[in-house]
Design a protein that fits this description.
Layout: E1 5-7, E2 10-15, H1 17-23, E3 32-34, H2 44-47, H3 52-63, H4 69-79, E4 92-95, E5 98-102, H5 112-116, H6 119-129, E6 135-141, H7 145-154, E7 160-167, H8 173-180, E8 187-193, H9 196-207, H10 210-218, E9 221-224, H11 231-251, E10 260-265, H12 270-281, E11 285-292, H13 297-304, E12 306-308, H14 329-336, H15 341-354, E13 356-358, H16 361-365, E14 370-374, H17 377-391, H18 397-413, E15 419-423, H19 431-437, H20 447-458, H21 464-469, E16 478-481, H22 485-493
Parallel strand pairs: 5-15, 6-7, 6-9, 7-8, 8-16, 10-11, 10-15, 11-14
Antiparallel strand pairs: 1-2, 1-3, 4-5, 12-13
Helix pairs in contact: 1-6, 3-4, 3-11, 4-6, 11-12, 17-18, 17-19
The chain binds pyridoxal-5'-phosphate.
Length: 495
Protein backbone atom coordinates (compact mmCIF):
# COMPACT_ATOMS: atom_id res chain seq x y z
CA UNK A 1 0.00 0.00 0.00
CA UNK A 2 1.29 3.45 -0.91
CA UNK A 3 2.52 5.63 1.94
CA UNK A 4 0.98 9.09 1.91
CA UNK A 5 2.56 11.92 3.85
CA UNK A 6 0.39 14.33 5.80
CA UNK A 7 1.03 17.47 7.78
CA UNK A 8 1.29 17.37 11.58
CA UNK A 9 -0.72 20.60 11.63
CA UNK A 10 -3.41 19.80 9.06
CA UNK A 11 -4.42 16.22 8.19
CA UNK A 12 -6.03 17.45 4.97
CA UNK A 13 -2.67 18.52 3.57
CA UNK A 14 -1.20 15.44 1.97
CA UNK A 15 1.70 14.68 -0.36
CA UNK A 16 3.42 11.79 -2.01
CA UNK A 17 6.92 10.99 -0.77
CA UNK A 18 8.53 12.87 -3.66
CA UNK A 19 6.30 15.91 -3.14
CA UNK A 20 7.07 15.92 0.59
CA UNK A 21 10.80 15.76 -0.14
CA UNK A 22 10.51 18.66 -2.57
CA UNK A 23 8.56 20.83 -0.17
CA UNK A 24 10.62 20.03 2.91
CA UNK A 25 8.11 21.68 5.22
CA UNK A 26 4.30 21.58 5.08
CA UNK A 27 2.14 24.73 5.24
CA UNK A 28 2.00 26.75 8.47
CA UNK A 29 5.16 25.19 9.82
CA UNK A 30 3.75 21.64 9.83
CA UNK A 31 5.97 18.61 9.25
CA UNK A 32 5.20 15.77 6.88
CA UNK A 33 4.66 12.40 8.54
CA UNK A 34 3.86 9.02 6.98
CA UNK A 35 0.17 8.06 7.28
CA UNK A 36 1.33 4.56 8.25
CA UNK A 37 4.62 2.73 8.55
CA UNK A 38 4.70 -0.43 6.47
CA UNK A 39 6.08 -3.63 7.96
CA UNK A 40 9.61 -4.61 7.05
CA UNK A 41 8.44 -7.95 5.77
CA UNK A 42 11.89 -9.31 4.97
CA UNK A 43 13.49 -11.83 7.25
CA UNK A 44 16.03 -10.26 9.64
CA UNK A 45 18.32 -13.25 8.95
CA UNK A 46 18.11 -12.52 5.26
CA UNK A 47 18.90 -8.83 5.83
CA UNK A 48 21.96 -9.83 7.84
CA UNK A 49 23.46 -11.24 4.66
CA UNK A 50 22.93 -8.01 2.70
CA UNK A 51 25.31 -5.07 2.36
CA UNK A 52 24.45 -1.48 3.31
CA UNK A 53 23.04 -0.56 -0.08
CA UNK A 54 20.80 -3.61 -0.21
CA UNK A 55 19.47 -2.98 3.29
CA UNK A 56 18.91 0.66 2.32
CA UNK A 57 16.78 -0.43 -0.62
CA UNK A 58 14.66 -2.78 1.51
CA UNK A 59 13.94 -0.06 4.08
CA UNK A 60 13.57 2.96 1.83
CA UNK A 61 11.43 1.30 -0.82
CA UNK A 62 8.79 0.67 1.83
CA UNK A 63 8.65 4.32 2.84
CA UNK A 64 9.15 6.11 -0.49
CA UNK A 65 6.50 4.27 -2.41
CA UNK A 66 6.23 6.60 -5.39
CA UNK A 67 9.88 6.01 -6.38
CA UNK A 68 10.48 3.23 -8.88
CA UNK A 69 12.99 0.50 -8.10
CA UNK A 70 15.29 1.91 -10.75
CA UNK A 71 15.10 5.45 -9.36
CA UNK A 72 15.71 4.40 -5.79
CA UNK A 73 18.60 2.09 -6.61
CA UNK A 74 20.18 4.86 -8.69
CA UNK A 75 19.99 7.21 -5.67
CA UNK A 76 21.31 4.61 -3.23
CA UNK A 77 24.19 3.44 -5.41
CA UNK A 78 25.39 6.99 -6.04
CA UNK A 79 25.11 8.00 -2.39
CA UNK A 80 26.75 5.08 -0.59
CA UNK A 81 29.89 4.66 -2.66
CA UNK A 82 33.59 5.52 -2.41
CA UNK A 83 32.74 8.78 -0.63
CA UNK A 84 32.71 6.59 2.45
CA UNK A 85 36.11 5.45 3.68
CA UNK A 86 34.92 1.92 4.52
CA UNK A 87 33.04 -0.75 2.58
CA UNK A 88 30.80 -1.29 5.61
CA UNK A 89 29.56 2.35 5.28
CA UNK A 90 28.46 2.29 8.94
CA UNK A 91 30.67 -0.15 10.89
CA UNK A 92 29.61 -1.47 14.30
CA UNK A 93 32.46 -1.55 16.83
CA UNK A 94 32.19 -3.35 20.16
CA UNK A 95 33.95 -1.38 22.91
CA UNK A 96 33.56 -0.88 26.65
CA UNK A 97 30.37 -2.91 27.00
CA UNK A 98 28.40 -1.43 24.12
CA UNK A 99 28.18 -1.40 20.34
CA UNK A 100 29.29 1.86 18.74
CA UNK A 101 27.56 2.36 15.41
CA UNK A 102 30.07 4.59 13.63
CA UNK A 103 28.07 6.92 11.42
CA UNK A 104 30.99 9.21 10.56
CA UNK A 105 32.75 7.53 7.67
CA UNK A 106 31.30 9.81 4.97
CA UNK A 107 32.84 12.83 3.32
CA UNK A 108 32.30 15.33 6.17
CA UNK A 109 32.94 12.91 9.06
CA UNK A 110 29.63 13.36 10.90
CA UNK A 111 26.45 11.30 10.83
CA UNK A 112 24.67 13.92 8.73
CA UNK A 113 26.45 12.36 5.73
CA UNK A 114 24.31 9.24 6.12
CA UNK A 115 21.27 11.16 4.90
CA UNK A 116 22.80 14.12 3.10
CA UNK A 117 24.78 12.05 0.67
CA UNK A 118 21.50 10.68 -0.67
CA UNK A 119 19.18 13.70 -0.27
CA UNK A 120 20.44 15.55 -3.40
CA UNK A 121 19.68 12.45 -5.50
CA UNK A 122 16.27 12.01 -3.92
CA UNK A 123 15.50 15.68 -4.46
CA UNK A 124 16.61 15.89 -8.08
CA UNK A 125 14.69 12.67 -8.81
CA UNK A 126 11.62 14.12 -7.06
CA UNK A 127 11.87 17.31 -9.12
CA UNK A 128 11.96 15.27 -12.33
CA UNK A 129 9.02 13.10 -11.28
CA UNK A 130 6.93 16.18 -10.50
CA UNK A 131 7.97 18.13 -13.62
CA UNK A 132 9.46 20.98 -11.61
CA UNK A 133 11.11 23.62 -13.79
CA UNK A 134 12.25 25.99 -11.02
CA UNK A 135 15.74 25.88 -9.60
CA UNK A 136 15.59 24.35 -6.11
CA UNK A 137 17.11 26.55 -3.40
CA UNK A 138 18.17 24.53 -0.39
CA UNK A 139 17.86 26.78 2.64
CA UNK A 140 19.51 25.35 5.71
CA UNK A 141 20.19 26.26 9.33
CA UNK A 142 23.02 24.34 10.90
CA UNK A 143 24.42 23.74 14.35
CA UNK A 144 27.65 22.77 12.59
CA UNK A 145 27.40 19.42 10.86
CA UNK A 146 24.32 19.58 8.64
CA UNK A 147 25.74 22.65 6.88
CA UNK A 148 28.90 21.03 5.66
CA UNK A 149 27.26 17.72 4.82
CA UNK A 150 24.55 19.52 2.81
CA UNK A 151 27.11 21.74 1.06
CA UNK A 152 29.17 18.70 0.11
CA UNK A 153 26.08 16.90 -1.15
CA UNK A 154 24.64 19.77 -3.18
CA UNK A 155 27.79 21.52 -4.47
CA UNK A 156 27.53 21.85 -8.25
CA UNK A 157 24.41 19.66 -8.47
CA UNK A 158 22.63 21.03 -11.59
CA UNK A 159 19.24 22.62 -10.90
CA UNK A 160 20.05 23.40 -7.26
CA UNK A 161 21.50 26.17 -5.11
CA UNK A 162 22.31 25.97 -1.44
CA UNK A 163 22.41 28.66 1.26
CA UNK A 164 23.63 27.71 4.74
CA UNK A 165 23.25 29.79 7.93
CA UNK A 166 25.37 28.89 10.96
CA UNK A 167 25.83 30.53 14.38
CA UNK A 168 29.05 32.51 13.94
CA UNK A 169 30.28 31.81 17.48
CA UNK A 170 28.58 28.47 18.02
CA UNK A 171 30.51 25.87 16.00
CA UNK A 172 33.92 24.23 16.39
CA UNK A 173 36.90 25.77 14.51
CA UNK A 174 37.12 22.70 12.27
CA UNK A 175 33.39 22.79 11.55
CA UNK A 176 33.63 26.45 10.58
CA UNK A 177 36.71 25.93 8.41
CA UNK A 178 34.97 23.04 6.65
CA UNK A 179 32.05 25.26 5.71
CA UNK A 180 33.77 28.52 4.76
CA UNK A 181 36.18 26.71 2.41
CA UNK A 182 33.35 25.04 0.48
CA UNK A 183 33.77 25.15 -3.29
CA UNK A 184 30.91 25.16 -5.84
CA UNK A 185 29.32 28.03 -7.78
CA UNK A 186 25.90 27.28 -6.34
CA UNK A 187 26.96 27.48 -2.66
CA UNK A 188 26.63 30.28 -0.09
CA UNK A 189 27.61 30.16 3.59
CA UNK A 190 26.60 32.87 6.06
CA UNK A 191 27.49 33.26 9.74
CA UNK A 192 24.80 34.86 11.90
CA UNK A 193 25.10 36.79 15.12
CA UNK A 194 22.78 34.53 17.07
CA UNK A 195 22.51 30.87 18.08
CA UNK A 196 21.26 27.79 16.24
CA UNK A 197 17.65 28.31 17.32
CA UNK A 198 17.77 31.82 15.84
CA UNK A 199 19.07 30.40 12.57
CA UNK A 200 16.42 27.67 12.51
CA UNK A 201 13.61 30.10 13.36
CA UNK A 202 14.75 32.50 10.61
CA UNK A 203 14.82 29.71 8.05
CA UNK A 204 11.38 28.37 9.04
CA UNK A 205 9.98 31.90 8.76
CA UNK A 206 11.24 32.26 5.19
CA UNK A 207 9.70 28.89 4.32
CA UNK A 208 6.24 30.06 5.35
CA UNK A 209 6.51 33.52 3.76
CA UNK A 210 4.01 33.58 0.89
CA UNK A 211 5.23 36.90 -0.52
CA UNK A 212 8.76 35.61 -0.71
CA UNK A 213 7.52 32.39 -2.30
CA UNK A 214 5.70 34.29 -5.06
CA UNK A 215 8.71 36.51 -5.78
CA UNK A 216 10.97 33.48 -5.91
CA UNK A 217 8.63 31.68 -8.27
CA UNK A 218 8.63 34.67 -10.62
CA UNK A 219 12.41 34.44 -10.80
CA UNK A 220 12.34 30.65 -11.27
CA UNK A 221 13.27 29.54 -7.75
CA UNK A 222 11.63 27.49 -5.02
CA UNK A 223 12.83 26.56 -1.54
CA UNK A 224 13.46 23.13 -0.14
CA UNK A 225 15.10 22.05 3.08
CA UNK A 226 18.07 19.87 3.88
CA UNK A 227 17.29 19.99 7.60
CA UNK A 228 16.01 16.92 9.38
CA UNK A 229 12.51 18.33 9.09
CA UNK A 230 12.68 16.95 5.52
CA UNK A 231 11.33 13.42 5.35
CA UNK A 232 14.06 12.76 2.77
CA UNK A 233 16.53 12.88 5.62
CA UNK A 234 14.59 10.85 8.15
CA UNK A 235 13.93 7.86 5.91
CA UNK A 236 17.62 7.24 5.03
CA UNK A 237 18.37 7.45 8.76
CA UNK A 238 16.09 4.50 9.51
CA UNK A 239 18.38 2.33 7.43
CA UNK A 240 21.40 2.22 9.73
CA UNK A 241 19.42 0.98 12.72
CA UNK A 242 18.25 -1.99 10.67
CA UNK A 243 21.79 -2.40 9.36
CA UNK A 244 23.33 -2.30 12.87
CA UNK A 245 20.82 -4.80 14.23
CA UNK A 246 21.42 -7.23 11.42
CA UNK A 247 25.23 -6.95 11.84
CA UNK A 248 24.79 -8.15 15.43
CA UNK A 249 22.71 -11.04 14.09
CA UNK A 250 25.38 -11.80 11.49
CA UNK A 251 28.08 -11.89 14.17
CA UNK A 252 25.97 -14.20 16.29
CA UNK A 253 25.89 -11.69 19.17
CA UNK A 254 22.09 -11.70 19.12
CA UNK A 255 19.45 -13.93 17.53
CA UNK A 256 16.97 -12.53 15.01
CA UNK A 257 14.03 -11.28 17.10
CA UNK A 258 16.06 -10.45 20.25
CA UNK A 259 15.59 -6.91 21.50
CA UNK A 260 18.24 -4.22 21.59
CA UNK A 261 18.36 -0.74 23.11
CA UNK A 262 19.52 2.27 21.16
CA UNK A 263 21.28 5.28 22.63
CA UNK A 264 21.21 8.51 20.64
CA UNK A 265 23.00 11.81 21.32
CA UNK A 266 20.13 14.13 20.53
CA UNK A 267 19.68 17.68 19.33
CA UNK A 268 16.89 18.22 16.83
CA UNK A 269 15.41 14.76 17.60
CA UNK A 270 15.83 13.52 14.01
CA UNK A 271 18.21 10.66 14.59
CA UNK A 272 16.27 9.14 17.48
CA UNK A 273 12.96 9.60 15.66
CA UNK A 274 14.36 7.56 12.77
CA UNK A 275 15.06 4.77 15.27
CA UNK A 276 11.46 5.04 16.51
CA UNK A 277 10.18 4.71 12.93
CA UNK A 278 12.49 1.72 12.42
CA UNK A 279 10.88 0.05 15.41
CA UNK A 280 7.44 0.76 14.02
CA UNK A 281 8.57 -0.99 10.88
CA UNK A 282 9.30 -4.04 13.00
CA UNK A 283 12.88 -3.71 14.23
CA UNK A 284 13.05 -5.23 17.74
CA UNK A 285 14.07 -2.21 19.82
CA UNK A 286 13.17 -2.17 23.52
CA UNK A 287 14.15 1.32 24.61
CA UNK A 288 15.19 4.62 23.10
CA UNK A 289 17.74 6.27 25.32
CA UNK A 290 17.71 9.97 24.54
CA UNK A 291 20.96 11.65 25.56
CA UNK A 292 21.25 15.42 25.96
CA UNK A 293 24.10 17.71 26.90
CA UNK A 294 23.63 20.56 29.38
CA UNK A 295 20.89 21.96 27.13
CA UNK A 296 18.68 19.31 28.73
CA UNK A 297 15.27 20.46 27.58
CA UNK A 298 14.44 16.93 26.36
CA UNK A 299 15.46 15.28 29.62
CA UNK A 300 13.17 17.65 31.50
CA UNK A 301 10.41 16.92 29.00
CA UNK A 302 10.61 13.15 29.48
CA UNK A 303 10.72 13.64 33.26
CA UNK A 304 7.84 16.09 33.62
CA UNK A 305 5.80 16.20 30.40
CA UNK A 306 6.59 19.92 30.15
CA UNK A 307 8.60 21.17 27.20
CA UNK A 308 10.10 24.51 28.20
CA UNK A 309 12.65 26.36 26.12
CA UNK A 310 12.66 29.39 28.44
CA UNK A 311 16.14 28.89 29.79
CA UNK A 312 19.72 29.86 29.16
CA UNK A 313 21.22 28.56 25.91
CA UNK A 314 24.50 26.91 26.88
CA UNK A 315 27.46 26.62 24.49
CA UNK A 316 29.01 23.20 25.11
CA UNK A 317 31.77 21.05 23.64
CA UNK A 318 29.06 19.11 21.78
CA UNK A 319 27.79 22.06 19.70
CA UNK A 320 25.69 20.00 17.29
CA UNK A 321 23.41 19.27 20.24
CA UNK A 322 23.19 22.87 21.47
CA UNK A 323 19.51 23.19 20.68
CA UNK A 324 16.49 24.24 22.72
CA UNK A 325 13.83 23.72 20.04
CA UNK A 326 14.00 20.12 18.91
CA UNK A 327 11.97 20.35 15.71
CA UNK A 328 11.38 16.67 15.11
CA UNK A 329 9.88 16.14 18.54
CA UNK A 330 6.74 17.54 16.91
CA UNK A 331 6.43 14.32 14.92
CA UNK A 332 6.41 12.30 18.14
CA UNK A 333 4.01 14.73 19.84
CA UNK A 334 1.65 14.34 16.90
CA UNK A 335 1.84 10.58 17.28
CA UNK A 336 1.22 10.48 21.03
CA UNK A 337 -1.62 12.97 20.55
CA UNK A 338 -3.34 10.18 18.58
CA UNK A 339 -2.45 11.79 15.22
CA UNK A 340 -4.63 14.73 16.15
CA UNK A 341 -3.34 17.66 14.11
CA UNK A 342 -5.52 20.20 15.92
CA UNK A 343 -4.15 19.15 19.31
CA UNK A 344 -0.60 19.17 17.98
CA UNK A 345 -1.06 22.62 16.42
CA UNK A 346 -2.30 23.97 19.73
CA UNK A 347 0.82 22.75 21.55
CA UNK A 348 3.16 24.06 18.86
CA UNK A 349 1.43 27.41 18.97
CA UNK A 350 2.03 27.53 22.71
CA UNK A 351 5.70 26.77 22.03
CA UNK A 352 5.90 29.74 19.67
CA UNK A 353 4.01 32.19 21.84
CA UNK A 354 4.99 31.13 25.37
CA UNK A 355 8.05 29.00 24.73
CA UNK A 356 6.50 26.05 26.54
CA UNK A 357 3.74 23.45 26.45
CA UNK A 358 2.57 20.59 28.62
CA UNK A 359 1.32 17.24 27.36
CA UNK A 360 -1.53 15.32 29.00
CA UNK A 361 -1.00 12.34 31.30
CA UNK A 362 -2.40 10.08 28.61
CA UNK A 363 0.10 11.36 26.08
CA UNK A 364 2.94 10.97 28.56
CA UNK A 365 1.98 7.33 29.17
CA UNK A 366 2.75 6.67 25.49
CA UNK A 367 6.38 7.64 26.01
CA UNK A 368 7.34 4.66 28.15
CA UNK A 369 9.80 3.33 25.56
CA UNK A 370 11.82 6.52 25.94
CA UNK A 371 14.38 7.18 28.65
CA UNK A 372 15.92 10.63 28.82
CA UNK A 373 19.01 11.79 30.67
CA UNK A 374 21.87 14.20 30.19
CA UNK A 375 25.61 14.50 30.69
CA UNK A 376 27.44 17.51 32.05
CA UNK A 377 30.56 18.84 30.36
CA UNK A 378 32.67 17.15 33.02
CA UNK A 379 30.89 13.80 32.63
CA UNK A 380 31.32 13.98 28.86
CA UNK A 381 35.08 14.61 29.11
CA UNK A 382 35.39 11.95 31.83
CA UNK A 383 33.77 9.37 29.54
CA UNK A 384 36.14 10.13 26.67
CA UNK A 385 39.09 9.67 29.01
CA UNK A 386 37.69 6.53 30.66
CA UNK A 387 37.00 4.66 27.42
CA UNK A 388 40.34 5.76 25.97
CA UNK A 389 42.12 4.37 29.03
CA UNK A 390 40.11 1.12 29.19
CA UNK A 391 39.82 0.29 25.49
CA UNK A 392 42.15 2.62 23.58
CA UNK A 393 39.07 3.85 21.72
CA UNK A 394 38.68 7.59 21.19
CA UNK A 395 35.20 8.98 20.69
CA UNK A 396 34.01 12.47 19.89
CA UNK A 397 32.19 14.71 22.37
CA UNK A 398 28.67 13.98 21.06
CA UNK A 399 29.14 10.24 21.19
CA UNK A 400 30.58 10.70 24.68
CA UNK A 401 27.37 12.40 25.84
CA UNK A 402 25.49 9.29 24.71
CA UNK A 403 28.01 6.95 26.28
CA UNK A 404 27.85 8.80 29.61
CA UNK A 405 24.06 8.72 29.58
CA UNK A 406 24.11 5.02 28.74
CA UNK A 407 26.24 4.41 31.86
CA UNK A 408 23.65 6.31 33.91
CA UNK A 409 20.86 4.27 32.36
CA UNK A 410 22.51 0.96 33.23
CA UNK A 411 23.28 2.16 36.76
CA UNK A 412 19.66 3.25 37.24
CA UNK A 413 17.92 0.24 35.71
CA UNK A 414 20.35 -2.70 35.71
CA UNK A 415 19.16 -3.30 32.14
CA UNK A 416 21.94 -5.04 30.21
CA UNK A 417 20.05 -5.52 26.93
CA UNK A 418 22.66 -5.17 24.13
CA UNK A 419 22.91 -1.48 23.36
CA UNK A 420 23.79 0.26 20.12
CA UNK A 421 25.20 3.75 20.66
CA UNK A 422 24.88 6.08 17.69
CA UNK A 423 28.40 7.40 17.23
CA UNK A 424 27.72 10.63 15.42
CA UNK A 425 31.05 12.27 14.66
CA UNK A 426 34.70 11.54 14.19
CA UNK A 427 36.89 12.70 17.09
CA UNK A 428 38.86 14.62 14.46
CA UNK A 429 35.97 17.01 14.07
CA UNK A 430 36.21 18.12 17.70
CA UNK A 431 39.92 17.59 18.17
CA UNK A 432 40.59 20.26 20.79
CA UNK A 433 37.82 19.16 23.15
CA UNK A 434 38.79 15.52 22.70
CA UNK A 435 42.49 16.15 23.33
CA UNK A 436 41.70 18.25 26.40
CA UNK A 437 39.48 15.43 27.71
CA UNK A 438 42.26 12.88 27.51
CA UNK A 439 44.69 15.20 29.25
CA UNK A 440 46.64 16.68 26.36
CA UNK A 441 48.44 20.03 26.70
CA UNK A 442 46.47 22.07 24.19
CA UNK A 443 46.84 25.74 25.06
CA UNK A 444 49.54 26.87 22.68
CA UNK A 445 48.79 24.42 19.92
CA UNK A 446 46.83 25.05 16.75
CA UNK A 447 43.90 22.82 15.86
CA UNK A 448 45.94 21.14 13.16
CA UNK A 449 48.84 20.42 15.53
CA UNK A 450 46.29 18.75 17.77
CA UNK A 451 45.03 16.75 14.81
CA UNK A 452 48.55 15.36 14.34
CA UNK A 453 48.84 14.59 18.03
CA UNK A 454 45.49 12.78 18.03
CA UNK A 455 46.76 10.80 15.08
CA UNK A 456 49.88 9.79 17.00
CA UNK A 457 48.08 8.61 20.11
CA UNK A 458 45.08 6.97 18.45
CA UNK A 459 46.75 5.42 15.42
CA UNK A 460 43.56 6.32 13.50
CA UNK A 461 44.33 7.83 10.09
CA UNK A 462 43.56 11.54 9.72
CA UNK A 463 40.38 11.66 7.61
CA UNK A 464 40.56 13.18 4.14
CA UNK A 465 37.94 15.74 5.23
CA UNK A 466 40.45 17.20 7.69
CA UNK A 467 43.49 16.99 5.40
CA UNK A 468 41.54 18.80 2.69
CA UNK A 469 40.89 21.92 4.78
CA UNK A 470 44.38 22.35 6.23
CA UNK A 471 45.44 24.80 3.55
CA UNK A 472 42.15 25.49 1.75
CA UNK A 473 41.33 29.20 1.17
CA UNK A 474 38.32 30.82 2.84
CA UNK A 475 35.68 31.38 0.13
CA UNK A 476 32.75 32.58 2.27
CA UNK A 477 33.04 35.41 4.79
CA UNK A 478 29.56 36.94 5.03
CA UNK A 479 28.34 37.55 8.59
CA UNK A 480 24.96 39.10 9.37
CA UNK A 481 22.62 39.77 12.25
CA UNK A 482 19.88 37.20 12.80
CA UNK A 483 17.35 39.85 11.70
CA UNK A 484 19.03 40.21 8.31
CA UNK A 485 18.71 36.63 7.09
CA UNK A 486 15.95 37.32 4.58
CA UNK A 487 17.70 40.32 3.04
CA UNK A 488 20.86 38.23 2.61
CA UNK A 489 18.85 35.53 0.81
CA UNK A 490 17.32 38.17 -1.47
CA UNK A 491 20.79 39.48 -2.26
CA UNK A 492 22.20 36.02 -3.01
CA UNK A 493 19.30 35.21 -5.35
CA UNK A 494 19.19 38.73 -6.81
CA UNK A 495 15.47 39.08 -6.04
C1 LIG B 1 23.26 16.68 14.33
C2 LIG B 1 24.09 15.97 15.31
C3 LIG B 1 23.54 15.41 16.47
C4 LIG B 1 22.06 15.55 16.82
O1 LIG B 1 21.25 14.83 15.94
P1 LIG B 1 19.68 15.16 15.82
O2 LIG B 1 19.18 14.31 14.71
O3 LIG B 1 19.60 16.62 15.52
O4 LIG B 1 19.07 14.83 17.14
C5 LIG B 1 24.37 14.70 17.31
N1 LIG B 1 25.69 14.58 17.06
C6 LIG B 1 26.26 15.13 15.96
C7 LIG B 1 27.72 14.97 15.77
C8 LIG B 1 25.49 15.82 15.05
O5 LIG B 1 26.06 16.35 13.97
Amino acid sequence: MAVTYKSTRNSNETATASQAILKGLAENGGLFVPDHIPALDVDLEKLSGMDYRQVAYEVMSRMLTDFTEEELKYCIDHAYDKKFDTEAIAPVVKKAGAYYLELFHGSTIAFKDMALSILPYLLVTSAKKNHIKNEIVILTATSGDTGKAALAGFADVPGTRIIVFYPKNGVSPIQEKQMVTQKGDNTAVVGIIGNFDDAQTGVKKMFSDKTLEAEMDKKGFQFSSANSINIGRLVPQMVYYVYAYTRLVAKGDIKAGDKINVVVPTGNFGNILAAYYAKEMGLPIARFICASNENKVLYDFFETGVYDKNREFILTTSPSMDILISSNLERLIYRIAGEDSAKNSELMKALTTEGRYEITGEMKSRLSEFYGNYATEQECAGTIRKVYESDGYIMDTHTAVASAVYDKYVAATGDHTPAVIASTASPYKFTRSVMEAIGGQCDEKSDFELVDELNRISGVKVPKAVEDIRSAPVLHDTVCDKSEMESIVRKILAL
